[in-house]
Design goal:
Length: 78
């Protein structure tokens, strides 16, 4: 439980520091809120190295959502 509380405190401290940095860079409160909303939608964006990786991830998501039959033409029988 203490580790969870400590992690939450660190996350809040980091968020406050990042917000302060954004204000210092000239971002408006509305822009900061929008960035925070986007971060909530894409929490792992920091791990994505390039746009090609993003495109692959979008395609894989689409493929997963639209694939109805596991025995479809993507895996033809031998």
């Amino acid at each position: 439980m203490q580790a969870t509380t400590q992690a939450a405190t660190q996350a809040m401290t980091q968020a406050t520091t990042e917000t302060t940095d954004l204000v210092a860079q000239g971002f408006s409160p509305e822009q900061i809120n929008r960035l925070e909303e986007l971060r909530a939608v894409y929490p792992m964006i920091e791990m994505i190295e390039d746009i090609e990786q993003v495109r692959r991830m979008v395609f894989l998501k689409w493929l997963h959502e639209h694939r109805n039959d596991p025995a479809d033409s993507l895996h033809p029988a031998a």
